[in-house]
C-alpha cells in the first residue's frame, strides 16, 4: 500500500471477499483492513456481507464439481475472476480509471491468472488494470504488518484452502 501511496494517484480500497470462511476469519480480515485504512488514511468501500455459500456455489458451477475439493487452479481461477470483476465494476462505478489487487502481494498466488483476469475485466469495464509484482515487497510488508499489530492470515481464506491446510498439518503430525 505504501508503494501505491508514493504515486500521485488517488488510492481507495475495496474490501470484497466472498471467498473467506469461516465467519471469524472474515471478521478478523475485515477489522485488519479497517485498522490499516485508518492508519494510512485511505478511504475504503466495504462489502461486509459474509456469504461463502455464493462462493462455493460459484466454484462448483465453474468447475462442474459437486463434491470434494476442486484443484487449486480450478477454484483459484474462479476466485480471481469473481473478485476482480467486482473490483473493476466498483472502480468504474466510483469513477476510477485504474484498478489493481492486493492479490499481487502474495507469493502464493498465480500472477499469470490474476493478470489475465484483471486485463479481461479492465476491457469489459473500459478502465485499466495495474499489474505490478508486489511480491518483491512481501517480507517487508509482513514485518510492517506485524509492527502495526495487524492480523496476518494463515491461509488464502476459502473453505477449500482451509481444508487442505489443516489436512496437511494433520498428515505431518501423524508422520506422513
Topology (elements, then pairings):
Layout: H1 2-6, E1 13-15, H2 23-40, E2 44-46, H3 52-63, H4 72-93, E3 98-99, H5 111-125, E4 128-129, H6 138-147, H7 159-173
Parallel strand pairs: 1-2, 3-4
Helix pairs in contact: 3-4, 4-5
Q: Strand portion, in percent? A: 5-15%
Q: How many domain units?
A: 1
Radius of gyration: 17 Å
What's the count of strands? Answer: 4
Compute the separation of the termini in Å: 40 Å
Order of helices and strands: HEHEHHEHEHH
- Structural class, judged by helices and strands? mainly alpha
Query: How are strands sequenced across the largest beta sheet?
Result: 1-2
Give the proportion of residues in helices. Answer: 55-70%
Shape: globular
Give start-end ranges of low-pLDDT stretches. none
Q: Averaging pLDDT over every residue, what do you get?
A: 91
The profile of the biggest β sheet is:
2 strands, parallel
Total of helices: 7
Write structural notes for this entry.
It is a single chain. Strand 1, helix 2 (23-40) and strand 2 (44-46) form a beta-alpha-beta unit. A two-stranded parallel sheet has the order 1-2. A two-stranded parallel sheet has the order 3-4. It is mainly alpha-helical and 176 residues long. The chain has one domain. The chain has 7 helices and 4 strands; from the N terminus they run H-E-H-E-H-H-E-H-E-H-H.
Amino acid at each position: 500500500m505504501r508503494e501505491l501511496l508514493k504515486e500521485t494517484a488517488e488510492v481507495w480500497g475495496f474490501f470484497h471477499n466472498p471467498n473467506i470462511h469461516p465467519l471469524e476469519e472474515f471478521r478478523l480480515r475485515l477489522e485488519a483492513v479497517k485498522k490499516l485504512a485508518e492508519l494510512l488514511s485511505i478511504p475504503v468501500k466495504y462489502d461486509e456481507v459474509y456469504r461463502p455459500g455464493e462462493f462455493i456455489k460459484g466454484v462448483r458451477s465453474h468447475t462442474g464439481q459437486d463434491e470434494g475439493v476442486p484443484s487449486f487452479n480450478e477454484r483459484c481461477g474462479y476466485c480471481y475472476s469473481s473478485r476482480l470483476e467486482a473490483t473493476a465494476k466498483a472502480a468504474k462505478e466510483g469513477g476510477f480509471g485504474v484498478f489493481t489487487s492486493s492479490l499481487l502481494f502474495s507469493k502464493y498466488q498465480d500472477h499469470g491468472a490474476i493478470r489475465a483476469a484483471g486485463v479481461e475485466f479492465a476491457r469489459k469495464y473500459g478502465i485499466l488494470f495495474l499489474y505490478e509484482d508486489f511480491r518483491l515487497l512481501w517480507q517487508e510488508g509482513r514485518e510492517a504488518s506485524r509492527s502495526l499489530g495487524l492480523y496476518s492470515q494463515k491461509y488464502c481464506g476459502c473453505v477449500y484452502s482451509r481444508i487442505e491446510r489443516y489436512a496437511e498439518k494433520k498428515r505431518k503430525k501423524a508422520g506422513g
